[in-house]
Amino acid sequence: MVLEFLKYAYFNMTKGDSMNDTLIKCAEKAYLDLCRTIKFNTENKDTRKGAKQKICEMLVHEYDILENAVKGSDEKQNAFDCEHKRICEEIINTYSEISELTYGQAQKWLNMMLKYVLMTAEDFALKNYLHIPVDSYIMQAVGSDNPKLKYCLKLECVPKKDGTLGKYSESSSKPWSKWNYEEYIAFQSAVRTAISESNYHSPIEWENEAWIEVAEYRK
Description:
Strands 1-2 form a two-stranded antiparallel ribbon. It contains eight helices and two strands, in the order H-H-H-H-H-H-E-E-H-H. It is globular and about 45 Å long. By secondary structure, it is an all-alpha fold.
């Protein structure tokens, strides 16, 4: 009962929703996590709305492709990563006429959509292969030495404004919305390696605990 209420209140999901309904609502919700970082070159609201809708519909279709890629490969993580990169590039290309979207912004849309599906769908085959959605909270959780944050990984893999990598710093770290692919995948790989050596089953499992901790700490 509680879960059904939260799904309706947060995602506008109802018991009668199909899987496609769930996917489109997760994609639309995920858009809200990055839209404030987008700089449009058009004020036409219909054009913006059309581009957003095109991506959301594309993500519904791509979800099945991600599942099939993992199921049909012996190298499941690599198969997921390759499709993930292709989808992010498609998001960027689709928006190219109205905005210069970065890889950091594209990953946010796809990764948050997949995280929301994980939260709301009963059957989810992709959990162990998901990338962690990158934002400043996760950058801090990955690259902070703060002793008050017990989930911090203390890694030196956070992109900096000067082009180097290091620990997280609010002033010198490069905002996630400006990351390129090379910075993004190096960050994900470092996190994945650290999590494989921990008690967590997957990066997304760690991300849930770490994100909440940083959010609470920043209050």
